[in-house]
Amino acid sequence: MDRIGSCLPKSCLLLLGGARGVVGSPWEGPERDAYKYGDPVELEYAQAFSCLLLPAHPPDGVRIRPFLVTEDHIRKGKRGEDWYSSMAFKSLVGLPVDEEARDTKCILMFTIDELDNIKSDLSDMVNGFVDSCGACSFTLGGAVLNRLLAKGRNPIKGRVICTGFCFSGDAVRSASALLVQGTCGAEAVERELSRLKRDSGFEGWKRGSTVAFMFASVKRGSRLHHRPNVEADAFARVFPGVPLVGLFDSWQIGNEYVPHLSGKQPGKGKRKAPVSYLHERATIIVLLSLGSSEFIGRCP
């Protein structure tokens, strides 16, 4: 981690996670005024490193808020069962509150798998926060990792349990799709991604400022489709030139959300299941555009 941090400005917040496998788009260098990426690659079983650099000074209409939950923050004790949905918890760890929470367009959330009871404790934290902001009012994507490290300008006290970024502002656009266990095979995956492209109005997005995230179950990939790179290849066909960054692990965090269709989606309002944002055999695809900002990513 220190080695990677030495390559970045001292003020940069570095988040480093360990997963079963990674997804990335090889960077082929600048071409005229745009960045060119190769077709995305799913590395389910090989050692690899995939990264994304976010701008320190976002363009007008874009706000990027990092958040960080340590071990001390999740010890509810006398704080009550609604601790994760409280203003106190959100303010303490850096999650958006009040007007910024209502303006949130996308949240990327990563946590570790070392909680005492991962299914109940994690769902309490994720669902408690999401529901307090209004169920399905923004795209949510992330994963449960086996390792999670963070390094910032100031020393971080205690073990990091959960971290990520919140994106808000008028210039931010985001949409997501949830590929469930029954979505099997190249044609089915491409059909769902084409629906996401159509329903999100993606043709009107600025391509150079758009990146996509893929959070997939280790039980999908070649195990489900019987050949490698099926979902990444389908993504490249539907969204050519858009960089794809992601990972494979046991649990996924996310929802299916298209802003102008939110009122028609079954997740709107009261949740039917207590773990609706925590998945075990799914792939979450998140599209994110940050106005006029340019993304730089690598997958060596």
UniProtKB/TrEMBL annotation:
<keyword id="KW-0732">Signal</keyword>
<protein>
    <submittedName>
        <fullName>Putative positive regulation of proteasomal ubiquitin-dependent protein catabolic process</fullName>
    </submittedName>
</protein>
<feature type="signal peptide">
    <location>
        <begin position="1"/>
        <end position="24"/>
    </location>
</feature>
<dbReference type="GO" id="GO:0032436">
    <property type="term" value="P:positive regulation of proteasomal ubiquitin-dependent protein catabolic process"/>
</dbReference>
<dbReference type="GO" id="GO:0000209">
    <property type="term" value="P:protein polyubiquitination"/>
</dbReference>
